[in-house]
Write a structure and sequence with these properties.
Strand content: 25-35%
Shape: globular
Structural class: alpha+beta
Number of domains: 3
Largest sheet: 5 strands, antiparallel
CATH topology of the largest domain: Uridine Diphospho-n-acetylenolpyruvylglucosamine Reductase, domain 3
Number of helices: 13
CATH architecture of the largest domain: 2-Layer Sandwich
Helix content: 25-40%
Distance between the termini: 22 Å
Length: 375
C-alpha cells in the first residue's frame, strides 16, 4: 500500500525528494485517476500556478500540480479552451480531489474531440520533469530540439509517471467556438451506428464528436463553430446519415450530453469493473458483443469502447487477440494486481519501454509495477 509523504512545494524540493528516496514512490497530483501502486506517496499538488499565459499566441505554461479547473477558468476569460476536453475521472472512480494538468498529460487523457483535433499529447509543447536520479530535465517549449535524442514531450505524455515526475508543462490552447449542436439518430444497432458515424467522419462537415449510446438507443454527432455554419452542417449531416429518426440538441443540452459521455456518467455509482478498449472503429461492435458486458458505450466513432463488466472478469482473455488494447480503469485492488491495469505490450514496444525506463528511472522507483504485464 502507498504511504503518505509530505507535499513538495517547488521543483527543487521535488528533485531533492526523488534524490533522497530509498524505495518506491507513488507519484500523485490530485489523486483522481485510480492509480494503485505501492510506495511512499510523492505529492506534487503543491507545484501549482499558471506561470505564463499568452492568449494571442494560444500558449500557456503551468506548474504540473495546477488544477484543471484553474486552467479552464483562465482560458474562459479569453474565450479559449483545452480543445482535447480531458475526461474527469472522479465520478467514475468515486474520487475526491482536483484533477491536475500534469496528471492529464501524464495519462494522455483525451476526450471525445480527439477524433477532430488530436490527443492531449498533441497539445503539449514542452515539459520540465525530474528523472529517477533527481535531475531536472527540460525539453520542448520554444526550443523543440532535444540533445538526448528523445522527443521527451511525446515520451512523457502517457507514461503515467513511470519515467519521471512532471514539474511544469507548456501547452497549446484553442479558441472556444461560438456554438455547437448535436444530431441524434434514434434506434440504430451497434453495427449500423458505427457505419453512420464512419460516414459522418468521412464527410467534409467537421464532426467534433461521434458516439453511440446503446442503453439510450442513440447515436450522436457533434458539430461546433459559428452559428450559421453549425446550422448548415447539421442539415448536411442529416442527408449523409439518411436513416433513422433524427433530432437535434441545441448548444446547452449538447454540451451537457457530451460531458456525460466524456465522463462515462452512465457507469457512475454502479457496481462492476470498468474497462476502456481502444480498437479499430469497425471492430468495436464485434468486440462489445464478444465481451458480454453488463453495459457499454462507444466513442471516437467506434474506436473507443467503454465496458462495465462483472467484477473480476478477465476481459483481455475473453476478447482474445485484436488490433488494439484493453485498459482496466476501475476495479478492486486485488483485480488490478491480478490482471494489471495496462494491456501487455508487443515485444518490440516492451523492449523500447524497458530501455526508456532504464534510461530515465534506472532505480525503478516511479510507480513501480504499474506498467508490468501480467501473464
Amino acid at each position: 500500500m502507498a504511504r503518505k509523504s509530505d507535499m513538495v512545494a517547488s521543483e527543487a524540493d521535488l528533485a531533492a525528494a526523488v534524490h533522497a528516496a530509498t524505495g518506491p514512490l507513488s507519484v500523485q497530483g490530485g489523486g483522481t485517476r485510480g492509480v494503485q501502486v505501492a510506495g511512499d506517496v510523492l505529492d506534487v499538488s503543491g507545484l501549482s500556478g499558471i506561470t505564463l499565459y499568452e492568449p494571442g499566441a494560444l500558449t500557456m505554461v503551468a506548474q504540473a500540480g495546477t488544477a484543471v479547473a484553474e486552467i479552464e477558468a483562465a482560458l474562459a476569460e479569453h474565450n479559449q479552451r483545452l480543445a482535447f476536453e480531458p475526461m474527469d475521472h472522479r465520478g467514475l472512480l468515486s474520487r475526491r480531489g482536483a484533477p491536475t494538468i500534469g496528471g492529464v498529460f501524464a495519462a494522455n487523457v483525451s476526450g471525445p474531440r480527439r477524433i477532430a483535433v488530436g490527443a492531449a499529447r498533441d497539445f503539449l509543447l514542452g515539459v520540465r520533469f525530474v528523472d529517477g536520479q533527481g535531475q531536472i530535465i527540460k525539453n520542448g517549449g520554444r526550443v523543440m530540439k532535444n540533445v538526448t535524442g528523445y522527443d521527451l514531450v511525446k515520451v512523457m505524455a502517457g507514461s503515467f509517471g513511470t519515467l519521471g515526475v512532471l514539474s511544469e508543462v507548456s501547452l497549446k490552447v484553442l479558441p472556444q467556438p461560438e456554438t455547437e449542436a448535436t444530431l441524434i439518430i434514434e434506434g440504430l444497432s451497434d453495427t449500423a451506428a458505427v457505419g453512420a458515424l464512419s460516414r459522418a467522419m468521412g464527410s467534409p462537415f467537421e464532426v467534433t464528436g461521434a458516439a453511440h449510446d446503446p442503453q439510450a438507443g442513440q447515436t450522436l454527432l457533434r458539430v461546433e463553430g459559428f452559428d450559421a455554419s453549425v446550422t448548415y452542417r447539421i442539415a448536411q449531416l442529416r442527408d449523409v446519415i439518411g436513416t433513422g429518426d433524427l433530432a437535434v440538441l441545441g448548444a446547452e443540452d449538447s454540451r451537457a450530453r457530451w460531458i456525460a459521455l466524456r465522463d462515462v456518467s452512465a457507469f457512475h455509482g454502479v457496481e462492476g469493473d470498468v474497462w476502456r478498449v481502444s480498437c479499430k472503429p469497425s471492430d468495436g461492435p464485434a468486440l462489445a458483443a464478444k465481451a458480454g458486458a453488463a453495459a457499454y458505450q462507444f466513442d471516437w466513432a467506434g474506436g473507443l469502447v467503454w465496458l462495465r463488466m462483472a467484477s473480476g472478469t478477465d476481459l483481455r482473455a475473453r476478447l482474445g487477440a485484436f488490433d488494439g488494447h484493453a485498459t482496466l480503469v476501475r476495479s478492486a485492488p486485488h483485480t488490478q494486481a491480478e490482471l494489471g491495469m495496462f494491456h501487455p505490450e508487443a515485444p518490440g514496444v516492451a523492449k523500447l519501454s524497458a530501455a526508456l525506463r532504464a534510461r530515465f528511472d534506472p532505480r525503478g522507483i516511479f510507480n513501480a509495477g504499474l506498467m508490468d504485464a501480467r501473464s
